[in-house]
Amino acid sequence: MLPAPPHASPAPTPSTDPAAPTPYGGAPAPGGRGRRRSRPGGLFDPKSLLTSFPEALRKLHPRALATKPVLFVVACGAVLTTLSAVLTPSVFAWVISGWLWLTVVFANLAEAVAEGRGRAQAETLRRTRTDTVARRLRNNWRVGIDLRGAETETLPAADLQPFDFVVVEAGEVIPADGDVVDGVAAVDESAVTGESAPVIRESGGDRSGVTGGTRVLSDRLVVRVTSRPGQSFLDRMIALVEGATRQRTPNEIALHILLAALTIVFILVVVTVQPMASYAGAVQSTTVLVALLVTLIPTTIGALLSAIGIAGMDRLVQRNVLAMSGRAVEAAGDINTLMLDKTGTITLGNREAVAFVPLPGLDELQLADAAQLSSLADETPEGRSVVVLAKNKYGLRQPAEGELEHADYVEFSALTRMSGVDLRWADRSGVAIRKGAAAQVIDWVALHGGEVPAEARLFTDAIAASGGTPLLVAVHDRYGPRVLGVIHLKDVVKDGIHERFAELRRMGIRTVMITGDNPLTARAIAQEAGVDDYLAEATPEDKLALITQEQEGGKLVAMTGDGTNDAPALAQADVGVAMNTGTSAAKEAGNMVDLDSDPTKLIEVVEIGKQLLITRGALTTFSITNDVAKYFAIIPAMFAGVYPGLSALNIMGLHSPTSAITSAIIFNALIIIALIPLALRGVRYTPSSAHDLLRRNLTRYGLGGLIAPFVGIKLIDVLISGIPGLG
Ligand SMILES: Nc1ncnc2c1ncn2[C@@H]1O[C@H](COP(=O)(O)OP(=O)(O)OP(=O)(O)O)[C@@H](O)[C@H]1O
Ligand SMILES: [K+]
Ligand SMILES: [Mg+2]
């Protein structure tokens, strides 16, 4: 159940039309966090091999091939053998040419299948991005003074620019990404998140970010547009799932360079084979030489490399995490430390005032009145909840419009940790009220020459020790500066966090909570959530500094946060996961967005990162050892006529030189298709030490790669040896 927003009327139940499409094809799941998106056929659907075939053919374009050195060489070889088949036709030359082209097509197919999954998702998302009409406020400069009565004009959503202000009412679609600057509303974000339970979006706090394409269910919001046309969250999400924006990671580039180097070495080897062969009196045809080259170079990993990367991103999308950079996904596999912010990340983030506690001998009503006055212009959820409590429990009316204008408001900032008001009306002229973190308010009173009784600290400490956040309220009037009492703010730790942090610990990841809140509250929440360490009273700079400090110690750091005060830290972290509930600043700064706003999602992100690294390593090992075996098929076949002794190498007992070479080439092509499911699904990851993982994979995929071709080539040889011209 969602907490009722302070000023909102009860949220209507969201539309749960079972036929409504979600971005990922499945029917919308019932509400609830952390559910999985599953599709029939799991992560790999054999049918997609057929449906992606046309795209695989399109990828034969030289420009597309040129970015993959290994495949480019295979394609050049295919051109050569095709030419030679045309000039001196033979069954052997044509069969080899055909299978060389198939090798390239199969490699393209791996990539096309990986991308195809995203294309289907992108299609659904495109349908979400409706041609909405926006209602823009005229006279933008007046915003903040008179949002309610402002005139509006209608225009296509596509024409909206950053810093336009738009009004969105119940039932309407939010026309662009932005931050709520006025109002509280229930929003149905299922179009983007697949999550049908409505979420609360409100101005002032860390839950102000809204996404274009989502629908307002209740009330009315004024939104300041933050996205440029064509660069909205939905646009980026579409580009992401389509793989259009995917850039190679440094690791991938390094591997490509290694593969290119191996390819060059083997080209040199094959080029020098010819003079040796002619010296021995066994001149080899172009077809045989090309076949030798193709079996030697690492075609398997060359073909699957980009599919592995795309599939990794895709697996994250399945978990409702949008990764803007592949590099971050890889870094996630090696994370040492996870930093989390408290409010809105570890806790639900709707910190609400639940009680006003006056100091001994002071009047509760006077405290409520001061608390309310100090919060009239405080647009944070905390500030609004103070006004609501004053009204509901103490029946305090809000001052009339005219009175409100005779005041200077002091806005809350994460640096000052205070907010308040300086009154200038009638008998109240000269009265200053502040509320905020205990240390800051005590300083403020002291600065004006006042004294703070010891009870103030006792009261705030008691609230903090229970995990609540105390705000001291102080006034400075003709009786001097003094503390009136405490506001008790309450927040709730998200469900099931404790067990999940224990899991992170087992994975060897240290969790650190960094919060702007006081040390006692921080300790209570840290204990309840089960983090390893915490830093309290952290300013945005402190959060950033702590990450830099860890990184300087050689650690890879992930940061999870939702607030504008988290943005610098999110940008600095190797993996910055922004909560989807957070501000647009946080979402812009991070390199991942978690649509479920679940801080423990990092567990899955880490697993997917590790799985990506392991899969790539395993298939590279397989690819390289696999080529060794083909040696034994081709070399004896090439020289059997001149060096009878070499037939000792023909341990597979292959039928003839032509059938041996053909079998090796056919196997080389088929193994790509056979490994596409593994590349897309990923090698299974079980938590264990890096050393164990390496050893296990080297034996499994190294040995497998060595043995598989012997069996496969022998089988193919048996099958084709009866074909005239090959046998
Ligand atoms: N509206 C407000 N008016 C006055 N003081 C506030 C207000 N909101 C928060 N504070 C005080 O300022 C402190 C810092 O708030 P800030 O938003 O920077 O961090 P936080 O939300 O408590 O923690 P986190 O960084 O984990 O989200 C709070 O702990 C509280 O004591
Ligand atoms: K090969
Ligand atoms: Mg926060």
Describe this structure as you would to a colleague.
By secondary structure, the protein is α+β, with helices and mostly antiparallel strands. The protein has four domains: 68-115 and 244-313 and 608-618 and 629-682 and 715-721, no CATH class; 133-174 and 178-225, Calcium-transporting ATPase, cytoplasmic transduction domain A, CATH 2.70.150.10; 335-346 and 494-595, HAD superfamily/HAD-like (Rossmann fold, 3-Layer(aba) Sandwich); 350-492, Calcium-transporting ATPase, cytoplasmic domain N (3-Layer(aba) Sandwich). It is built from 25 helices and 22 strands. A seven-stranded mixed β-sheet has the order 10-22-21-20-11-18-19, sandwiched between helices. Helix 4 (69-87) crosses helix 5 (91-128) and helix 23 (602-639) crosses helix 25 (690-720). The site of magnesium ion has 6 residues, from helix 12.
List keywords for this structure.
727 residues, alpha+beta, Calcium-transporting ATPase, cytoplasmic transduction domain A, Rossmann fold, 4 domains, seven-stranded mixed β-sheet, six-stranded antiparallel β-sheet, 25 helices, 22 strands, 48% helix, 15% strand, elongated, binds adenosine-5'-triphosphate, binds potassium ion, binds magnesium ion
